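Q: I have two molecules that I believe assemble together. Could you output structure tokens for the complex as a whole instead of separate predictions?
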Amino acid sequence: MEPFRVIEVKESILADNNADADALRARLKTQGTFLLNVMSSPGAGKTCTLKRTIAALRDELRIGVMEADIDSDVDAAAILETGARVIQLHTGGMCHLDADMTRQGLAELGTDGLDLVILENVGNLVCPAEFDTGAVKNAVILSVPEGHDKPLKYPLMFEVADVLLINKTDVLPYFDFDLDKVVEYARLRHPGLEIFPISAKTGEGMERWFDWLRARVGEWKQ
Amino acid sequence: MEPFRVIEVKESILADNNADADALRARLKTQGTFLLNVMSSPGAGKTCTLKRTIAALRDELRIGVMEADIDSDVDAAAILETGARVIQLHTGGMCHLDADMTRQGLAELGTDGLDLVILENVGNLVCPAEFDTGAVKNAVILSVPEGHDKPLKYPLMFEVADVLLINKTDVLPYFDFDLDKVVEYARLRHPGLEIFPISAKTGEGMERWFDWLRARVGEWKQ
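A: Yes, here they are, computed for all two components at once.
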């Protein structure tokens, strides 16, 4: 038996997703649980970033994680090592999570006593941006090897993001990646976007991200 | 004015996509035009791979390119440098191309006299795998920085692929990427899958890919 549960989440056919998302957020506010939705392309480093984030904050916040994937449980297994409460959501081929799928996941995870739940969305820079999951904030991770032109090509993802983590800065010397340009392009989409260059592998630059997240969780609980 | 046309392609509401795809393939067979559908995550190196491929084959094959993106024309502009006939398709937010959108693009590109048309699909490792575009063969590019676990997490993409290019081998020393494992995982999804490790940046390993593509185009024209 797996040391974490694997949940098959189903899309709600009749749902008004925006209404579902608002209702979910209102309930999370009452409970004092902050939900962070983390989105990126496949392989941008969501799970690695989460592992470092949990390790940094676990002594001050009670944290749960929902790992969403089309298939496989490798991410939930990786998160389990951090000691966080974790479940794996399987989307049955679906390319994103909506608010009702997120609600199903939260019901299985159990939010009682949790300060922060992190939803690792399906690796996809297109579809997850179209569906409000009910999260309080949306984080997008863009990794250096993907190139600095991505905010031009995938505009909606950068519009809905509250914070952009530019990951894998440790390999900047090996790629033609212009940090100034990606900041410029991303702020064209969302002028107030918070941007933190990080390396989830080495830990470089991550303190400012931890501070940002810690402050948002604190505000939500007031 | 742009030196290439930008086409807004629309999804057909009533379409039977599989029937549309079969009809498109039959027409391409009659014309002797080979359509290659190239899919990958954002930033895996589709455009860079295409530029090298066109440069290698342009003296023996007449090549056209359709660049599909949600927004921006940066890829069509890059391909234009190769001298190939190129158009930019904008999907209006859509996360994939279907057979009718591909047909609209081919009608605008004009296939007369072309041996090979390359469709660069939207950067997305999920949705494009679900829609037969009418292409003769499907190529998937997975890049080293994305990690070797991707065939486990995105099974359908590797099932529908005829050929897998493992790109960015020039940065293998800087990533925890296991080439043997990715081959094992990909062949779990598709036992007969052709796999070529390449670096589109340095050109390393690309001759076998050119040979494969050249042979497939030759077969199609018989």
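A: One point stands out. Chain A has one domain: 18-220.
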